[in-house]
C-alpha cells in the first residue's frame, strides 16, 4: 500500500479561544508538537495560567500512516465526553503532530453528557478554525560518508537532486590518517529510494538511512 509523503499540521501555536456555556468557560488551545514528551510541559503551563480550572482535557496525534500515535484524556469529565470529541476535530481537519487542549472552568451548572460533548467539540473546532494549517513533506534522512577526494561527486548529487543538507563534518580516519567527510542530508519520501540507489552505486561512497 502506498502512503502519502505529505501531512497537514498547524504552523504555529493558536491564539486562545473561549466558549461560554451555562456559566462554564471552555478555553481552547492548539500546539504543534513533534513527540509525546512535549505534552506534559504544555499542560503544566496551562495549569499555571488557569489556577481555578478543574479540567484540562486534551487529545493529540503524532506521526503518519502506518505509524500513528494518539491519545485522548477526559481529565475527570465523564468518559468519552471531552478527549474523544476533541480528537474527532483533529481527525476532521485531517491534522497530525498537533495537540489540542480545552480547559474548563466550571460555572455551577451541569451540562450533561450531550452538553459536554458538544462544548468540547465546538471549542476544539473553534480553536482549529483559527489556526494556520500547513502541509509538510515526510522526509527520509541519509548519512553519506566518503573520502575527502570524493566530496565533489557527493556535492554534485546533492545539488542536482536538490537535497537539503542537515549537517556536515570532516574527521580523520584512524587507520588511513586521511580526512573523511560525513554529510547528513534528506529528501522527501517518494524520492528516497532513487537517491539512496544513486549514492549506493557510487565508488568509495557509503550511504545509510538514519
From TrEMBL:
Residues 22-127 form the Impact N-terminal domain. Transmembrane segments: none annotated. One of its GO terms (biological process) is regulation of translational initiation. SUPFAM superfamilies: Ribosomal protein S5 domain 2-like. One of its GO terms (cellular component) is cytoplasm. It holds the Pfam family Impact_N. PANTHER family: IMPACT FAMILY MEMBER YIGZ, IMPACT-RELATED. Belongs to the IMPACT family. This is YigZ family protein.
Amino acid at each position: 500500500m502506498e502512503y502519502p509523503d505529505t501531512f497537514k499540521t498547524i504552523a504555529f501555536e493558536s491564539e486562545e479561544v473561549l466558549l461560554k456555556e451555562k456559566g462554564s468557560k471552555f478555553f481552547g488551545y492548539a500546539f504543534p508538537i513533534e513527540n509525546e514528551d512535549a505534552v506534559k510541559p504544555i499542560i503544566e503551563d496551562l495549569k499555571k495560567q488557569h489556577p481555578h480550572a478543574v479540567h484540562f482535557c486534551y487529545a493529540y496525534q503524532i506521526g503518519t500512516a502506518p505509524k500513528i500515535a494518539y491519545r485522548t484524556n477526559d481529565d475527570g469529565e465523564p468518559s468519552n465526553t471531552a478527549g474523544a470529541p476533541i480528537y474527532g476535530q483533529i481527525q476532521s481537519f485531517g491534522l497530525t503532530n498537533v495537540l489540542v487542549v480545552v480547559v474548563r472552568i466550571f460555572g455551577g451548572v451541569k451540562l450533561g453528557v450531550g452538553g459536554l460533548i458538544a462544548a468540547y467539540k465546538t471549542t476544539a473546532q473553534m480553536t482549529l478554525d483559527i489556526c494556520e494549517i500547513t502541509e509538510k513533506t515526510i522526509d527520509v534522512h541519509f548519512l553519506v560518508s566518503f573520502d575527502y577526494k570524493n566530496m565533489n561527486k557527493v556535492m554534485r548529487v546533492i545539488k542536482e537532486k536538490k537535497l537539503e543538507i542537515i549537517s556536515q563534518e570532516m574527521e580523520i580516519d584512524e587507520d588511513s590518517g586521511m580526512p573523511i567527510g560525513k554529510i547528513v542530508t534528506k529528501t522527501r519520501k517518494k524520492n528516497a529510494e532513487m537517491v539512496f540507489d544513486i549514492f549506493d552505486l557510487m565508488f568509495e561512497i557509503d550511504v545509510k538511512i538514519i
